[in-house]
Amino acid sequence: MTSRGLFITFEGTEGSGKSTQFRLLIERARAEGHTVVETAEPGGTSIGRQIRKILLDPANSELGPTAELLLYFAARAQNVDELVNPALACGEMVISDRWTDSSWAYQGTGRRLGTDLVEQLDTIACRGLVPDLTIYLDIDLETGLRRARSRNVETQLNESRLDDETLDFHATVRKAYFELAQRYPGRFRMVDASRTVEEIATDIWRLVEERK
């Protein structure tokens, strides 16, 4: 790992198993002796978690696309200043559940706000900070949404606002992620999420080992 530290992000459509693999990677990295700072988008910080409640609560159906995008970047800017940049400066490993690629796919493309706008806001909020490795977990949409909606019923977290979008919306988002993989082949790596948890985790660790 470089003296700057290593910045790893997870991406995926709903129900791809992203959160499970995020947790397994953190556990594996710590077991291997790495100091790991974990964060999430939106979330990570106290302020970010408050913003998360607004963004994901299905009761907030009137939240407009532009306000949604700006809230995501407000949480992200706080994350950069409070958690990510300080940890990387200390040479630590930072692992984040989602980052700007989510805004590119969901708001820039899915909400049709335009990816140029997302990139402009990223310049303001992240000031040049780009992940060293982005792991995208790909799964067919119907399987993923079925998992996500079942999870929401079980956990009762009231975070289903995006899960409740149409299949067409999620198809647009998935297509956007494929475009990102083509645009950034150096850092954006696609992983087949239809396999066992163990097989996926093994592939992810191999990708991380290549970047250390």
CATH fold group: Rossmann fold
Biggest beta sheet attributes: 5 strands, parallel
Provide the gyration radius in Å.
Answer: 16 Å
What would you call the structural class?
alpha/beta
Q: Percent range for helical residues?
A: 55-70%
Q: What's the CATH class label?
A: Alpha Beta
pLDDT averaged residue by residue:
92
In total, the number of domains comes to 1
Task: Give the CATH architecture.
Answer: 3-Layer(aba) Sandwich
Number of strands: 5
Order of SSEs: EHEHHEHHEHHEH
What is the spatial order of strands in the main beta sheet?
Answer: 2-3-1-4-5
Please give the count of helices. Answer: 8
- The oligomeric status of these chains comes to single chain
Strand content: 5-15%
How would you concisely characterize the structure shown here?
This protein is of the alpha/beta class. The chain has eight helices and five strands. Helix 2 runs antiparallel to helix 3.
